[in-house]
């Protein structure tokens, strides 16, 4: 993957997912959930320095830029580190979690 595609993909993430809200819940200590309209898009666990990516973002990058799983992981790690100031994060899932996950369901 070249730097130009990476740069364009990160601009795309900022445009369409740059307004995700970082939320926490007592039911899942250590988890940072990045949500919009009650939908979870990314979950970061700082204790394990891991990130789970949910299908919407992953599919958008895959379909829009025709990227491999490795390329998507690389872009998402760079984006989350730059945008939200996390360091040394790895993506725990090699393919995205399928479906939509509601943040309000975590609170129950």
Secondary structure elements and pairings:
Blueprint lengths: L2 H15 L3 E3 L7 E6 L2 E7 L4 E4 L1 H11 L3 H16 L5 E2 L11 H4 L2
Parallel strand pairs: 4-5
Antiparallel strand pairs: 1-2, 2-3, 3-4
Helix pairs in contact: 1-3
What would your notes on this structure say?
The chain has 108 residues and is of the alpha+beta class. It has one domain. The chain contains 4 helices and 5 strands. The protein has a 5-stranded mixed sheet. Strand 2 and strand 3 (39-45) form a beta hairpin. Helix 1 (3-17) crosses helix 3. It is globular and about 40 Å long. 21% of the residues are buried. The mean pLDDT is 84.
Keywords for this entry:
single chain; 108 residues; alpha+beta; 5-stranded mixed sheet; globular
Structural class by secondary-structure content:
alpha+beta
- Give the ordered list of helices and strands: HEEEEHHEH
Biggest sheet strand order reads 1-2-3-4-5
Computed Rg: 13 Å
Low-confidence stretches: none
Mean pLDDT: 84
Number of strands: 5
Tell me the strand percentage band: 15-25%
**What separation lies between the terminal Cα atoms?**
42 Å
> What helical percentage do the residues reach?
40-55%
Summarize the structure.
It is built from 4 helices and 5 strands, in the order αββββααβα. The chain is an alpha+beta fold and 108 residues long.
């Amino acid at each position: 993957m070249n730097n130009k595609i990476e740069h364009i993909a990160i601009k795309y993430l900022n445009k369409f997912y740059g307004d995700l809200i970082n939320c926490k819940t007592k039911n899942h200590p250590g988890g940072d959930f990045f949500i919009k309209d009650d939908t979870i898009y990314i979950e970061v666990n700082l204790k394990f320095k891991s990130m789970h990516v949910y299908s919407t973002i992953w599919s958008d990058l895959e379909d829009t830029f025709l990227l491999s799983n490795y390329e998507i992981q690389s872009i998402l790690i760079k984006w989350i580190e730059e945008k939200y100031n996390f360091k040394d994060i790895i993506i725990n899932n090699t393919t995205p979690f399928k479906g939509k996950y509601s943040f309000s369901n975590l609170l129950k």
